[in-house]
Every structure is written in C-alpha cells, then in structure tokens.
Amino acid sequence: MAAPYAEHFLDLKRQIAETYPDFEARATQAWGDIINELDKMVATVSTQGSDYIPQVKFSELSSLSLEKVEEIRRIGTVVIKDVVDDAEARSWQDSLKEFVKVNPDIRGFPAGDMQFFELYWTKPQVQARSHPNLLAASAWLNKLYRDNGNGSLDGVDLSTPLTYADRFRIRHPGVQWDAHPPHIDGGAIERWEDTAFRTCFDDILTGQWRKHDPYALSGRLNARSSLYRRPNQATVFRTFQGWLAMSETEPHQGTLKVFPNVVLSNAYIILRPFFRPLVPIDSKDILDVKNWAYDISYADFPGILPRDGGFTGPRPTPETHPHLMLEKTMTSVPKVMPGDAVFWHCDVVHSVELEHTGKEDSAVMYIPAMPTTPMNKAYVEKQKESFLQGVSPPDFPKSPQKFAGNGEPVDFLSPIGLHAMGLPISV
Ligand SMILES: [Fe+2]
C-alpha cells in the first residue's frame, strides 16, 4: 500500500519540475557534475581526517584572513577554541552532574542511565548562554551570512545574537550511542515544500549549483522549517548549530561528525529525489552516473521519514545517498578542551559517533548561533515566558522543568545575554 503522503510527495515533485524552467535537462546536467565533484572531494577529505575541520582561537576571530573565513564557509563547520575558560566550563559540568543527581524527576535517555537530559533552564545553561564570549562568537558566525539582495532585511540584525535554549548531554565512556545517525536539522520535507525555504536552494534547482550560497540571507528569514508543527522541530533560523564542550573529548570519544562541504551536500541532497538508480543499490556500479536516471514518478524523498504527524530528516544513508560516501566523508571534529565550542552550518549533515572509547564523560551544552530576525524575535518572546514560568521552550515537548538549581535572571553573565533572552537588561 502506498504511504498516505505518496500523492502529496508526487505532487510536490511535479510542481517543482514545472516551476523551474527546463528542469529535467538542467537538473540532469547538474546531477552528473555534482557526482563528479563529490568523487574528488572524498579523496581529499578521507586522507586529511579531522585536520580538515578548521580550528581557530576565539581571540583571533576578528583578525582571521579572508582565506580562513572562506574555508570556514566552505566546510561549514568550525572549532572555536577557548571561548570560555577551562575551569569555568568544567565547573558547569560538575554543577550539571550535581543537578541531575539531586533532581530525580528529570527526563532524558537512555532510561536507567541517563546521558541526554531534557533540561533547558539549569543555572549552568543560563550562564553559558549569556557568557559574553559565546554571544560574541554567535554574532561572528551570524555575520558569515550575507544579503543576497533578494528581499527585505527589515528587522534583521546579525550583530545582535538571540538565545535558543536547548539541552545538554553528559555521555559516558563505553556506551554505544545510535540516537544520532547522519542527519540535517531545521526542516525536513519543508526544504522542498515551503516556497520561502525552497528559495534558499533555487540555484541548485535551476541547475546552477556552483552559484548556490548557503549563507544567502533572504530565503532563510521567512523559511518555515516546521510546516507540520512536529515536536522537536526547530521553528527558528539558527545560522549555525553548536555546542560548548565541558570536557576534553577527542575523535572516537563520542564526538560530533560532519560532512565537510555544505554546498556539495546541499546540492546532492536537494536533487536526489528527482533521480533513481537503474541498478540494485548494492551493485558495485551504483556510483556510476550512467546508472542513475531522472525520474519524478516515484513517491519518495529519500532520507525524509514520517514522524509524529510530520516528517524528520533529511537522514542520508549509504543506501539512499551513496555518492556522499558517508563512511569516508563523515569527519570527526578535532579534539576539544573544556571551553572550546563547535559550530556547524544549519544545513550541514552531522552525526554523533557511535563509540566512546575514552575514559571520561564527554559533556556538551547545545548552544546554537541565532541572529535577530523578526521570526526569531517572536520565538524569543515566547521562549522568555517559558523560562519565567519554568516550562519547556516552545519548540520542545513538555517535560518537567521546575527544579532546585534552575537559573534566574540574576544569574545571567552579561547584559547582552539578558537581551538575547528578551529580558530587561537591568535586573
Ligand atoms: Fe542534529
């Protein structure tokens, strides 16, 4: 039996094919070209490993060379060292461990040995998000985006970051973690379905994928990334997702892995639903472009999966997206120390390592970069109420949040941090 959304997916494909002039010919030309480029990229990335991911010091952000900034844009992921003092970051980890010990009603997973916590308003989180250096890093990342002259930027201020409250994890060594296979957050079928969001990928859909700028602002501002209001689906525009390390963590110790070329992964993933393989997926010739054909008659957006009344993904796998060669290209971020932060562009394919072979807990707080935009500001207003009332933020499932040791406005570490939460700066 066809999936209940099959007709909807087929319509969407047809609609896109009719919207973009000469779609079949241009998409087919681009598809071959992208596959070629992916092949070249794989060779470079797989030989360099974690060294391929740029690392910069927080203190150097304002004086980086243009080449370095372009490298960060191209790869889409950056490690920013020494955003926060080591001792302060470690103390946050200690406090969080204490917090979860004294508050038994906390939700998280895995059950029985909780390591990922459904908590948003603990004092260490409130402090970290309002740390002036973290907010300065956020503003710097926001400013990697640019006006592409394609619409109004009214109400947009890349220099003034806003806060998006998310959770934290304290991952134990030795425990396998399969909860986060390669995926992209911030919109699933919406990437194709929402007409505002889709404009972010116009250059890909017109076949001019090399012109695609993942840092073009206009399409992001009104993109609706949560058409189905699925819980856990962010409704805001985060320029970069990110985490702040509270522990020393190196590759194979449960760290983040990324696909390190955001133009190529976007181009391939956006065009993938319009092509199908002509040979079995396990054929040794599956990568040969001659074995793929343009076809919009099948009702599938590979990697987009139904969930909770909406959709999740994209979740590329070696089977659905073989040319990404995820086994070779998913690259662990280099070793981080407490107080270092990792940020990845909102379109970057990322995962969490299955294994943690280290000896220490691998602990991070999720803190993305979010600029001031009308949509984000509206969210922050609602999020502020959640904070003041001690409930989960609007994008997340409801879970208990009123605990001893929560942060309060007086705990914020900077006026800019209060502003980022929509709070008055004189508390
Ligand atoms: Fe994610």
From TrEMBL:
Pfam families, A to Z: Gig2-like
Origin superkingdom: Eukaryota
SUPFAM superfamilies: Clavaminate synthase-like
InterPro entries on file: Gig2-like (IPR010856), IPNS-like_sf (IPR027443)
Full protein name: DUF1479-domain-containing protein
Organism annotation: Lentinula raphanica
Native organism taxonomy: Eukaryota, Fungi, Dikarya, Basidiomycota, Agaricomycotina
